[in-house]
Amino acid sequence: xxxxxxxxxxxxxxxxxxxxxxxxxxxxxxxxxxxxxxxxxxxxxxxxxxxxxxxxxxxxxxxxxxxxxxxxxxxxxxxxxxxxxxxxxxxxxxxxxxxxxxxxxxxxxxxxxxxxxxxxxxxxxxxxxxxxxxxxxxxxxxxxxxxxxxxxxxxxxxxxxxxxxxxxxxxxxxxxxxxxxxxxxxxxxxxxxxxxxxxxxxxxxxxxxxxxxxxxxxxxxxxxxxxxxxxxxxxxxxxxxxxxxxxxxxxxxxxxxxxxxxxxxxxxxxxx
Length: 272
What we know:
Elements: H1 2-5, H2 7-31, H3 33-54, H4 66-95, H5 98-103, H6 111-137, H7 146-174, H8 177-183, H9 188-192, H10 205-212, H11 215-227, H12 239-242, H13 244-269
Helix pairs in contact: 2-6, 3-4, 3-6, 4-6, 4-7, 4-8, 4-11, 6-7, 7-11, 7-13, 11-13
């Protein structure tokens, strides 16, 4: 009893239950292989589609290969789309009463959100490996060296983890898988209104302002810098583009500070 009532005991209990629920999430994916296949195939299709269809029509600022310009944008797009999958899975569990069953069990309360977000990070690592492999096949290369490349991949995973807490909170709040599915297309404009696929220089002033301050743009520029790919802006640019790594880390910290406690409260309150 003392083990679980002490702070270390409660932490160990929460992590153990969280790991169990991560295993449960992967067990569910094995029963529904279509979901994981779609999640893995989609990024590869996007690399090939955008790389060859748009690649022949878009001029890279300052010159360079469009596929090398594109890959950091695709990494950013997939990262910022990941929370939508977490949202739909969480909303589906809430709608089917799975959350109620979890609450009736002798389980650490924070373990359920930890299980959802932890499973998404592991899935994200697999998706990232497939994207890197596909990018190398179509001609993309990281030129920044081993350490900057590792930093870029860690930046993707850390931000994806923070965004997954957004998905947990929205899914617990919506509690309806149909509403969650209907909301998925709304995430597309956020990723498209950025410098991920095209330069923002020729956009109207107000649209360029939104694109430059979009966190997707900051992540894209940070990855281009770390990978040594073309498209890094110079001169007088918006603060997030001049300091992309700082901007991404600030976004990550803000999302965790806001949505981890919100997700915990939403999970507790949904049982009342």
